[in-house]
Amino acid sequence: xxxxxxxxxxxxxxxxxxxxxxxxxxxxxxxxxxxxxxxxxxxxxxxxxxxxxxxxxxxxxxxxxxxxxxxxxxxxxxxxxxxxxxxxxxxxxxxxxxxxxxxxxxxxxxxxxxxxxxxxxxxxxxxxxxxxxxxxxxxxxxxxxxxxxxxxxxxxxxxxxxxxxxxxxxxxxxxxxxxxxxxxxxxxxxxxxxxxxxxxxxxxxxxxxxxxxxxxxxxxxxxxxxxxxxxxxxxxxxxxxxxxxxxxxxxxxxxxxxxxx
Length: 261
Hints:
By secondary structure, the chain is mainly alpha-helical. It has a domain at 1-119. The chain has helices at 7-17, 21-43, 51-74, 78-83, 85-98, 116-124, 131-136, 138-162, 172-183, 195-221, and strands spanning 226-228, 238-240. Helix 1 (7-17) crosses helix 3 (51-74) and helix 3 runs antiparallel to helix 5. The longest helix is centred in the last third of the chain and has 27 residues, at 195-221. The protein starts with 6 loop residues before the first helix and ends in a 21-residue tail after the last strand.
């Protein structure tokens, strides 16, 4: 039996999951914040930072922390919320923002903010104008997003481990260039990893990157009849497109649909 939401929990749930003008504007604002911070983390220097950079870090870290705590507070299944990779990535980012001296060598982990691009699509799919398109191509968009996020994170790892010891890696763009050429098996040979760790990282980029790329191709070739709509009672995420009740617990679910053609 579901517990009725009251007070602050009800207000926050309305903003994050409800309908209406203010929830709509709130989620668009959070979506814009996500992509702005992703761009900032990819643009900002990883090593030489002044006071302005630290001030921006604290502001961004505060917003991310407040968002994370709010979503944890309204989650019905809080343990599932804690163990989700997206939320763990947010927590890691918050640590790197508030403890720059303790984790300065791991500042590249801020790029994990790119993982939020995955969550952003859960909101975009609810926009009525875009919903039919995203429902038709939901899995393809999801796989493309996973691949892009993987590339950004691997490029950050390449940069953090090779800059200063590799003559071919001077900027994040150099690391991104190497990651893409390795993932696509192009391998121009103008940038090579240095040391055993660099070679191991190259293997990881090629193996995992090709796996994600093959999953994308499989998704394009093999259509799927299920849609993602989490049951509020038991947490089951995938249901038939025309489902009215959760097949696991029997709870009524509301799957947005444009209707029948």
